[in-house]
Amino acid sequence: xxxxxxxxxxxxxxxxxxxxxxxxxxxxxxxxxxxAFNSAVDKAVLKPVAKGYQAVTPAxxxxxxxxxxxxxxxxxxxxxxxxxxxxxxxxxxxxRVVFNTTLGIGGLIDIATPAGLPKHDEDxxxxxxxxxxxxxxxxxxxxxxxKTLRDTADTVGSMAMDxxxxxxxxxxxxxxxxxxxxxxxxxxxxxESLVASAGFGDEYAFVRDAYLQxxxxxxxxGSPPKPLPLGEDEExxxxxxxxAPSAAEPAAADASSVPAQ
Length: 261
What we know:
Blueprint: H1 8-14, H2 28-56, H3 59-83, H4 87-102, H5 124-130, E1 138-141, E2 145-148, H6 152-160, H7 170-186, H8 189-198, H9 203-219
Antiparallel strand pairs: 1-2
């Protein structure tokens, strides 16, 4: 259920963007059923396990676990930056892995961020978006949550470049993979509380639109030329989904066009 929900900051920024209809969601009835299934599994299994983990594990240990998996993730992030031509960011990601793996005791301590090497947020879905691949339809995948057809590349890429998968011990791989899922779920408690307290009439539509807005914003590195049209009542021309600028020259984009969202 990796990245199945939206981060707290994203939810806060995008709370006004939700719409009741969305032309990126052509199979909405099916997606809603999968969303309900995922929610049921989360409430019955994953959330109780995450709460138990949070209750019995000291905060410093949880921080070390999060740092460890974040360090592994930087390998994938660095490759994603490299494929977009973001040489400086890719070099920074390599530096993060080196510093945190060595000085940070295998990544348990984040040495790189205080040293001026910030954490980036890149994946293969953004790589494809940066090179002009359109988002395709919105999907809710069983046990994995929101995606677009293009962003399924993130699932394939993250698994292919996950150092954990290179371990020649099935039990160790399974244990670390489960621990990572539980660690990620604990980070979503604050966002979950925000959604619950906000009292959105349609949680599914809110999560969907927030996810699409966030992905669109990430492809444009935080500076999209225009808002992403979501609702069916908004004028939308597929021809506006022109190829996104190269990752190395985002400022060169024509502000009148919209890239692959």
